[in-house]
Inverse folding.
């Protein structure tokens, strides 16, 4: 059986696992105050070229989003996001559970438009009753998005400009950031992300770690008192060094980049195969998530050999399906899947 | 340098680590729907002798407490707990952040008295203005407590009876449950805990796992819709099998029990040494946390060779200090520490 | 200057005011435990023909919505509502502030369709990832809606059936319920509302009271422990009798109905005048809110003599405007406005 | 029957009621944007001698406390208060419901000591684990306290100094502020309160209004975006002018002060009678709440003629009881009660 359901089906990259084993019986202080964590933070700051940035390691994506957003908003504010945003759909109301509304914007294959963000803010403050409504206090975007799409440098710059003009922080959910940075044809680098966003996170869970997300606050003071907030959100790992060791490993010798590129290579092989075999791409994705329209018969046949996700409800005769590659996807698996298509 | 600061200074027990490595490149579905997790749940249910219990695996203690308490209380209710309870002191307001008040009871070396719980509840409903106050909706206890002390079977039974009579759930925080069950002279077994509590958790983080806590709901329906609540609290691990594999290992061949007993053996050696060398025990603890009163001079001298915690503020001439052993504490470390005393 | 901005521009109906003055120096216990409040509850129960209903008096609409919704939902649940619902737009995030998401449905002149509610619920539970999403835990509707429109008896019955089949409560926001019940051509009575909804509120603030909303829980036990929840939400009036006296007066001798009918009569005169003078109705409303499309020039001219609301942003050449009548709208004001049109 | 249960048993002072009647049919805009409210704010600012202060009118005490505290704290912070503070005991968890912990201090007849506040803060930041605990983010005091006691000018100054040194706001709950300012022998004036506190409220509900509390933010910017927060907390009155008119009346011709003095005069007569008749004062109160120890027999006898509160549980042979006077307490009632003693 082949598995293309998601990019979190394996454990960690073997290098990460090796370092966890090598250090396993060492004794360190808890809660991320250890040397491994300090070193990992240093490497992340070097990778983004920002010595003054603040880096925090959390365990998973939903808790990271909830904690960061809670740290960035005042009680009367909400977070702008695409209607398809993970925080709006698939986090069981974690944002609302800490008291904040998700203010939805139209999505364009998962992305928001700078012009629509700007219009939302302008219209909001033009409305005489705006103090009876939830104020747009920040913008949330994901890169890649939930649809595997990417912002261009121009688009990201435009969003950043709109946010800075409106004096609200721009927060980028990078659960799959590695795959976005390694994508074919992207003109957005990690340093661009750091320069244009106020806060973002570098996803580890889906890109080589057992678990872990690295939150980067690009300006000192933008996430004040973030440590107790991490604790309050139940997101503080007792053995914090586990996060430090993993990110230290991922940010040594370009490992993060290398393994992300591998996933993209595999995804592009798959995409090419889809096109060559005459399937219609639902989205022309350049990242590790591939969406394709497939006849139901073919889906049923393929499901005897491979697992993958139906994207939305099953259609009458054909359905959108999603195939996901990862740092761990082997050539054999790709070749066999292509053969089965 | 010797380290006796806490019981979460190392990684995982080597057997746990080995299983994580062996399974590392296997592919499984996420969020704890995998076979390892099912198997681990089964083993926990067998260990407590309750086939109908529900078991959930979460990552850490604070998030477990916050999620369980949120699941057990209605909005107008609060949680009764000793004033020294971890949820009242050291969780950065995680309980309040989900809207619930901690209703404090006097502590007796970290424990609450059944009679005082009963009096609180009786007095509460006798007060004519009780609907203006937060109703006692559940009782939180820790076993061992934050002071390393243990409830006797009689005490635990009395608490259980008071709660059942008042129709409120009894929740036991078992962050160090293994060390409690392995303690010298305790008459409380795991099956007693399961029989007398409504919900409890078996701590993994401090007893051999990299991380992880096993929540047991001993009656079906007492924690309804707990899965989305775990997600909402940011406590759902994407690679849920990591928790399953760890608890599966810990609950195979009595590993959990065996390694906890080791910590107790080491702690008892230490305690005996303290007594023999004339130190005054601050608490006569039978678990892996030992509290002793030490002259400040001796503390300063010892700190050149070992790390340990001051328990409360430094006194004029002497101070209470805490030494913690764990599954990983070696004979060499104990012997050297004893020699240094 | 004529005022048609809203239906809460005056104080209370003179009969209400008189009763408040007559009872002003009487001494009663607080918090709604007085005889006036008991009597008012009795009269409301008689008016809806449900002796077992529970009635609670709160001060304002937003607090009523937030408190009732908090009482009806479990933490993992959200409230279904039209995207234009007051709770989604104009309550400053009060619902989210108590931890719950508003799950939006398409609006049809302010109304939701039973078929779309049913589809939402069906699709939700069909989605394999539904436990990662906020569960639809109740339905919120307003009657009249924010657009002055009304559900027909068939529509309301269909919504009630969908909710009962899905086992979620139906909650009706009756901020302007009086005007809805008195509307021309409606086939929905107060008893229908009580029979088809699980909880609803009878608005006082906009229909003759200084302030006050009467929450009706039509089944015992559906809003358990609601008193402490009212207190917790800051919605408990110390001098609770002020609410009792007002609702007692409004529900004596059909006053609530009579004064609501007066507002409808005035609104219909206005509507007829709009039509006769060739204005295009934006919505064909049969309640006390009238929406009409007006050339901007005419708006500017009219604004020298009358106040009213622009409904949405000003258009290029014409704009939707809203005129609201109330129990207090005089014949003179209506005649003069019509003359000015 | 005589009533001494509380100071909110009547409606409003006749002057207040008269103004509400006189203005009843006037039309004004809602939500406190009317001229009466502006004028009332102006008068409050004049009374405290602070033209730059910001004044907001809310409906009741619990909602005022919850909204102000939510506005003053960041998510990781809690509010310091006496263990007997109204927010800690009698607000059904309203503070926790908006996510904040009440950090309790010892009470001294309802008051907190500056030295103990200072020690709490100092100890907190000295604790190495302080980032795992809820930070003291503000201080709440009541004046008069729940026990009718008052801070002296020295005590209030000391508290203010401690707070300013620690850079946390001092908030004073003035539910009965009028009675505090009018108390015999007090050296604290309204201007002192305004000068020494960061935020406080002037209680209307218990001092002559039907309802209403005037929040004063003595420094611009200390309660930013407070309007949407009032709305979010369900504390925004649609007909906001009702609050404006009441406070305008109370702050015209010293009415607030005059009627508060009346209550004190009556309370002092009562106190003198208690003393003369040999009762033991439980607290030597100089405000409108009088606490006295009374034999149970005498309580039972007196209860046939008067209502008053038992303060705490009934004792074996004697019990503490509370008698409350108000602006409305007549000479006849006092004389009759004294006669019955």
């Amino acid at each position: 059986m082949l598995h293309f359901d998601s990019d979190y089906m394996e454990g960690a990259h073997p290098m990460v696992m090796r370092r966890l084993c090598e250090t396993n019986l060492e004794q360190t202080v808890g809660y991320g105050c250890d040397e491994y964590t300090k070193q990992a933070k240093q490497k992340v700051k070097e990778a983004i070229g920002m010595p003054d940035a603040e880096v925090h390691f959390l365990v998973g994506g939903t808790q990271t989003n909830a904690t960061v957003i809670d740290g960035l908003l005042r009680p009367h504010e909400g977070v702008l996001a695409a209607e398809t945003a993970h925080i709006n759909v698939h986090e069981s109301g974690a944002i609302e559970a800490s008291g904040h509304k998700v203010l939805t914007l139209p999505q364009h294959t998962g992305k928001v438009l700078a012009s629509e963000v700007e219009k939302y803010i302008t219209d909001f403050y033009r409305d005489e009753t705006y103090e009876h409504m939830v104020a747009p206090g920040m913008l949330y975007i994901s890169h890649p998005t939930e649809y595997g799409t990417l912002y261009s440098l121009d688009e990201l710059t435009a969003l950043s400009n709109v946010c800075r003009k409106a004096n609200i922080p721009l927060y980028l959910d990078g659960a799959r950031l590695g795959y976005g940075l390694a994508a074919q044809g992207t003109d957005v680098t990690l340093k661009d992300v750091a320069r244009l966003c106020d806060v973002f996170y570098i996803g580890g869970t889906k890109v080589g770690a057992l678990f872990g997300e690295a939150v980067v606050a690009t300006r000192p003071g933008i996430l004040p008192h973030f440590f107790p907030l991490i604790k309050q959100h139940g997101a503080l790992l007792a053995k914090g060094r586990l996060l430090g060791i993993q990110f230290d490993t991922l940010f040594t010798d370009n490992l993060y980049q290398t393994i992300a590129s591998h996933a993209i290579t595999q995804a592009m092989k798959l995409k090419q195969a889809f096109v060559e075999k005459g399937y219609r791409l639902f989205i022309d994705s350049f990242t590790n998530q591939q969406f394709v329209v497939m006849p139901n018969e073919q889906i049923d046949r393929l499901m005897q050999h491979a697992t993958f996700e139906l994207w939305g409800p099953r259609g009458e005769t054909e359905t959108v399906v999603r195939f996901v590659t990862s740092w761990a996807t082997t050539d054999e698996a790709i070749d066999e899947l292509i053969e089965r298509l």
